[in-house]
Amino acid sequence: MQQEALKIKRNHRMLYICQYLVEHPNELISLSQFVDYFNCAKSSISEDIDFVREVFEYNQLGNIQTVAGVAGGVIYYPAVKEEEVQSLFAAIEERLQDGKRILPGNYVYVADILEDAITLNKIAKLIATRYQHQEIDAVMTIETKGIGLSVAVARYLNVPYVVVRRGSSDSEGSTLSVNYVSGSLQTVMKMELSKRSLAPGSKVLIVDDFLRNGGTINGLLTMLEEFECQAAGICVFAENTDQEKQELPRYVSLVQVQINFNEDARHFELRIKPGSFFKE
Known about the structure:
The protein is an alpha/beta fold. It contains 8 helices and 12 strands.
């Protein structure tokens, strides 16, 4: 960052600092960056950040923490207000009850919700706030419907995202493959990941759009074992609670759906309730 030599008012500095912090969540930012940009004293920047911190905390916009030392600086941790969480779930519930969403194999169509940029961003921010203090090194998903959500979560956590493929690609280079049992087809399938994607010992957050049987999640866990990595968490947008699942480690879902048959209307309908994400 570099700013032309001119006198910047304090309110201008604070607006810029606010914007910069919001655009760089979960990233340690040296105070010298702002000092050099505005060509002002470090004490002035510290006072600006203290004021910004008070505003953020008062309005529940997140927390700004100061790290002391030569390599220190400030880190912005996003937060989501409780009323925003309730509003988000109400909007998701309304969307899920609209239209024909029950698909063959006891799947539920959720792609349109995760393709809505504003809704996707809110969901991703909510997920990131849960895991942002767990030293996540990467976010992992499997192609294709979970990619958008994993990218958005990774952006808030300020870490890379990793996409496991169901088929090989020439652009991936050397890959490692594992077999897993598909929950929908009950057949053995293969997934692959480039050997350059993860460093051994990485703590990885698994994110996916829909959980039915758990076969895909178990495949991703096997993949992490092959890379000598650890699953720091498993979070899915929605899960079918009617479906018997494979044995899984602890996971959370934002939305739980049940497929019920309405005897009066003679058709299937969805029952929707908050997932375990909101119960812990």
